[in-house]
Amino acid sequence: MHEIRTEQARRDFTRWLPQVTPTWTWTWRYQAEIYEHLEQLTAGEIDRLMLFVPPRHGKSELVTIRYPVWRMEREPETRVILGAYSQTLANRFSRKARKIARERFDLDIERAAAEEWETADGGGMRAAGVGAGVTGMGGHLIVIDDPVKSRAEANSAAYRDKVWQWYTDDLYTRLEPGGAIVLIMTRWHEDDLAGRILASDDADSWMVISLPAIAEDGDPLGRKIGEALCPDRYDVPALDRIKTVLGNSWYALYQQRPQAPEGEFFQRQWFEIAPTAPGDMREFVRYWDKASSLGGDFTAGVLIGRDGWIYYVLDVVHGQWVGADREKVIRQTAELDAQRWGRVQIWIEQEGGSGGKDSAEATIQNLAGFPVFADHPTGDKATRAEPFQAQAMAGNVRLLRGAWNPSYLNELTGFPTGSYDDQVDGSSGAFNKLALDRVAGAWRPKGRR
Predict the structure, then answer these.
(1) Cα(82)–Cα(102) distance, rounded to whole angstroms?
(2) What pLDDT sits at residue 446?
(3) In the chain, what's the furthest Cα-to-Cα distance?
């Protein structure tokens, strides 16, 4: 009878789990959703799976540790690569998996380290932290669990690039033909590993399962709005208490998105949409944040005007252009601004290095006949945006109604965890030149032409 149960367990992961860890609960509703997609992964019906699940809901114990061991018991030659943000964490996962494996089947006694261990039949597990190479071993299954440690790491563009390069250059190239990848992570940033994958040409290959701690509209499990994911462990009062402590981090950790829907640094409700602009404004600044390459960041030119102590975002020109095409757009925009608004002071953000200087000088030459200047901003993007944020929070910033409004608000409310910030940079640059330089006596308006 024991052999029959074991054979059934080899075929059915849900039967295997209670045999391996009988004191844990494996029958919660949200777990069934995960089982369904792991079954599809095992059968080869899907080969790319993203799982976004709140902390302390057993996702690592279930998927990162036990599922690979079950696959090895079922298919003894299965080789698994397990990645995490550090070698220490990857080894911890691997060590737990190895302990379970030893109780289920024979391991190679010569290759039994936490970093790399093998089965007697040639399968095994290799653990690697972000940046670590995995040469010398292919993987039938790659599991990446939390490649980012914290919000601070996620907010670092350099670290996000490091994770992406590790995924593309090291992990992905070790995938065996017909192999599968599982990604489990906290969505701290829109431009994280999951975000970059979903923005790539490979996006359609991925099945995405996102399970928020508290149900929202369109819940994948069919829960009512406000219902807890696993009330036996964390009911709604317990989750509300966690939310109070975490603040905005609640949305990344528990709701599977980088920020609150209404925004964090900038909030949507701060911005009133004005049907028309005041007719007697005399002070205008258009600030350009230029993309460095086609297919990367966007170029954004934000026009802000001042009426007393109220600031109007009057227009945003936003697109992916480089070289001569971008210069044509900038020149055309200057001519249209002059026709509609009169004298508009134009500023170009100059990036560091000789390339940034050459680019700014080329734009200034292109805008001969207009009041145009190069700006050398200092400080990080959030610090530069704080004066604009303060006036928006006070209700002193309004948007002139236009087709650009939705994209503009989406980017502002996603800052600083959104994928792009060019419209934010353009806004803070225009505002600072218009408001702060004016206070310092640098502004010299000459009225309309």
Answers:
(1) 18
(2) 40
(3) 94
Q: Which residues contact 218 (CB under 8 A, 6 or more apart)?
A: none
pLDDT tens, position by position, 144-188: 999 999 888 888 888 989 999 999 999 999 999 999 999 999 988
CA–CA separation, 418 and 111 (whole Å): 43
How would DSSP label each residue in 52-82?
E--TTSSHIIIIIIIHHHHHHHHSTT-EEEE
Given this structure, which CATH class describes domain 268-439? Answer: alpha beta
Token pair listed for 53 = 């699940």
Domain ranges within the chain, ordered by starting residue: 2-211, 268-439
Where the chain has pLDDT below 70, the residues are 1-10, 260-263, 292-296, 352-355, 437-449
At residue 7, the pLDDT reads 58
**Which CATH entry fits the domain spanning 2-211: 3.40.50.300, 3.40.1180.10, 2.170.270.10, 2.30.30.230?**
3.40.50.300
Residue (of 232, 202, 230, 196) closest to 215 by Cα position = 230
62 vs 114: CA distance, rounded Å: 19
Question: Mapping DSSP to helix (H, G, I), strand (E, B) and coil, where does residue 196 land?
Answer: helix
C-alpha 279/C-alpha 305 separation (Å) is 11
**Residue 239 to residue 236: CA distance in whole angstroms:** 5
- Least Cα distance to 89 among 139, 136, 148, 44 occurs for 148
CA distance 211 to 182: 16
- Between CA 363 and CA 21 the distance in angstroms is 66
Are the beta carbons of 107 and 101 closer than 8 angstroms? Answer: yes
Calculate the CA dihedral of residues 52, 69, 41, 49 and round it to 10 degrees.
20
DSSP SS3 for 106: coil
Query: How does pLDDT run across 129-143, given as a tens digit for each residue?
Result: 999 888 778 999 999
Interacting residues of 274 by C-beta distance below 8 A, sequence separation 6+: 312, 398, 399, 400, 401
Q: What's the rounded Cα separation, in Å, for the pair 227 and 210?
A: 15
Sign of the CA dihedral 155, 161, 165, 166?
A: negative
